[in-house]
């Protein structure tokens, strides 16, 4: 029997749900590969977070975060939420975003740059239908609060 891969560990952590330490999530994130290109994200993606106690997690749960929609590398709705009728809608308060390749923790991968918020979401590849993200926003959350980690699941069949 072979050992479990980092990618399999991420999938298991998502399925398990519940609270997890930031150290555990960070270790997995840092071991993942870069996305093949920014175009990889084009489409509609559902979203979920890792509950490490970071306030970003609670904020997105409260907002009923439903993921991100990438129409092109220069046209992204970074915060899709569920309205009172359970429809996915764009949350205008967060504006739009664009995708670029950026270096983060020694890996050049795709980052999403918000147009009106000081936020960079850095993505790593898990599999064709799952990516992991790290929200880098030191102007919104002090460094001592750590990093908010999340994941996106491709909605291509919905």
What would your notes on this structure say?
The protein has 158 residues and is of the alpha+beta class. It has 3 helices and 9 strands. It is globular, with a radius of gyration of 15 Å. It is 19% helix and 41% strand. Strands 4-3-2-1-9-8-7-6-5 form a 9-stranded antiparallel beta sheet. The chain starts with 5 loop residues before the first helix and ends with a strand. Helix 1 (6-16) runs antiparallel to helix 2.
Write a concise keyword list for the protein shown above.
158 residues, alpha+beta, nine-stranded antiparallel beta sheet, 3 helices, 9 strands, 19% helix
SSE topology sketch:
Blueprint: H1 6-16, H2 22-31, E1 43-49, H3 55-63, E2 65-72, E3 75-82, E4 88-90, E5 97-104, E6 107-114, E7 120-127, E8 130-136, E9 148-154
Antiparallel strand pairs: 1-2, 1-9, 2-3, 3-4, 5-6, 6-7, 7-8, 8-9
Helix pairs in contact: 1-2
Summarize the structure.
The protein is of the alpha+beta class and 158 residues long.
Strand content: 35-45%
Could you estimate the helical fraction of the residues in percent?
10-25%
- Element-by-element helix/strand order: HHEHEEEEEEEE
The geometry reads as globular
Q: Which strands sit side by side, in order, in the main sheet?
A: 4-3-2-1-9-8-7-6-5
Mean pLDDT: 93
Number of DSSP helical runs: 3
Distance between the termini: 35 Å
Low-confidence region ranges: none
Radius of gyration: 15 Å
How many β-strand stretches? 9
Query: Biggest β-sheet, characterized?
Result: 9 strands, antiparallel
Briefly note the structural class of the backbone.
alpha+beta
